[in-house]
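Subject: Interface between my chains keeps coming out wrong

I've been trying for a while to get a sensible model of this assembly. When I model each chain on its own everything looks fine, but I need the whole thing in one frame so I can look at the contacts. Pasting all components below, labels as-is. Any help appreciated, I'm running out of ideas.
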Amino acid sequence: MNTMRITFLGLVCSVLMAPAAFAGTLDTVKSQGFFNCGVSQGVPGFSNPDENGNWSGIDVDVCRAVSAAVFGDPDKVKYVPLTAKERFTALQAGEIDVLSRNTTWTLSRDAQIGLEFAGVNFYDGQGFMVRKDSGISSAMELDGASVCTNLGTTTELNMADFFRANGMAYEPVVFEKADEVVNAYDEGRCDTYTTDKSGLAAQRTKLADPDAHVVLPETISKEPLGPVVREGDGDWADVVRWSLNAMIEAEEFGLSQSNAQTTCAMTSNPVVARLCGKEGGTGAGLNLGESWSYDIVTMVGNYGDVYEKHVGENTPVGLARAGSPNASYKNGGVLYAPPAR
Amino acid sequence: METDKSRIGSFIFNRSVQGIFYQLITLGLVALGIYYIVTNTARNMLERGLASGFHFLGVESQFDIGMTLIEYSPTSTYFDSFIVGLLNTLLVAGIGILFATIIGFTVGIMRLSSNWLIAKIAEAYVEILRNIPLLLQIFFWYFAVLRALPKPKQSLELYDSFFLNNRGLFIPDTVFGEGSSIIFYLLWLTIIISIGIFIWAKRRQNRTGERFPAFYVSTALILGTFFISLAATGFPVSFEYPELKGFNFKGGVKLIPELVALTFALAMYTASFIAEVVRGGIMAVSKGQTEAAKSVGLKQNLILRLIIIPQALRVIVPPLTNQYLNLTKNSSLAAAIAYPDLVLVFAGTALMQTGQAIEIIGMVMGVYLFLSLFTSLIMNLFNRFMKVDGER
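Reply #2:
Try treating it as a single job with all components included. I did that and got this:
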């Protein structure tokens, strides 16, 4: 019933809240000393709590970067775990200030439901996972399969499109919470489990025997995942957008968490000097301190640091970056940030 | 002047005038409140760029649903998905109410048994089932059912036509061929005649005191006509058997495990409350009634049917209505185990895809309100029917 409650709360808020309370998230956040960040209920590598309740993951690090930029401290964030179904209502209702919960950027979300996407922190695509012993090697062999998935995602529409386009039948089995999807798939309710491929890799670590399952090669959709804010609050959207861009640009120019201190002290490159907060006055335009991007890199890391730490090849999630769209545009990927100047 | 003042005074201090005045103020405040909520909502939605209105109902939904009682595909509209969800909710509520009533009455009567073991079993049932949260029970039955059942290729089967596996229960579908419609017309006709027989038998008994075996006669009439008409039309009925094709069985009728688990959990849980309602109702009939009935020479089963149950039902029906309403509303927990009910399909997927929370939640609340009021209406009519003549 929790979902119902949040949806309902959102309704009540949009019914009762006066418009005045809606202006200036950045000012509100600065004066209260923290902000609320909506995350998943546990997707390893993206947003996942450890046994002490500390959140980590690349989605969490977007919020930590925003916190570092605004407060000079990456931990002024309160994390609000949300189901896919609850997330937009929670954002609209003002319960959270940033939604960083592997959320796909689509036209209808951008245009119809009062959201503004602040960028892309992971380029993903939907795939299928099956049991190895089923002998299936391609998604085209899935005619008639039972498909487990999550409620309230682009996944539901993509799979309908995919099966319709290929003239195949299927039985959707749609759960409200990700954990129940994994559980039901593990119990054999479905032949295949579909979600974003990064999600499959992450959820596979939760299965009873992860090695008995395999992700099929087909990618059936584009899923650019990124942080989201409320529409109509440009200042706050800028802060979130450029916090993410700063991480990407820092990597491009070789500024990382481990070398930032020394590099900034002796750099002669004007781009790096701007990222270090020594030149350019980028902070004033965003209503932030001049060291905002330096704080992000030293406290959270650049995009590559964050990627390798949470979802890279040496983690349980194990998503190789080289050759994927998430590589820098210089290495054949599509990761490209506008210049921070 | 004096008289004028005192006239105004007596008007102001008049009780009924004061009463009307306060009622008008309250009414005005409520109207103002509603006006404020409506205009404020509209303004806030506009400011946040939220789409509004009911145009989305005519748009293609683009998603599929696992279990549908009507024809449905991704090219159907959002309104169709609303109907699919509504029918699935009605289905699970209807079956749930039927089984909850049967189990509830049985357990309630068992608790009053003079046999110690039977009474204690019934008591244990009630105390365990009603004290564990329903959501946990739903999860328990769902994952217990899933774990216990085999994969499709190792299905349990009966006569090559009934199959049970972790994808559901597959049973043969009856296909009615040409000329079978006459059978249904005859079936309806005999049912109407049977109702007539019941009314006639009751009137005759009131007039003359003679009894007529209306139940046996009408059962024989309905079944007899059905089979004779079947034979006469040359059995235009065939069966479509489920067959294992690829991953799953195709053809036949399929009951998905989510439906089974949800119905089971709802029925078992609500039955524990109904059992207590039934026990209370029967105990509310004073012992003197039984003794008086015995003293006029009525047999045991007639005492139960004519004396105890009619009086007990008057106590049972109002709280029983509550339980039926609870079951219907609790069926919205379906979303947890992927049963595509109204909340999962419409207040879930459709809401997510359109983002029109106010319209969709409003429609869903309207449906539950209507279902509840309708159930109340039926049960109130039934209660009035059960009342003793002359009683208020």
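Reply #3:
Confirming on my end. Chain B is about 70% helix and 5% strand.
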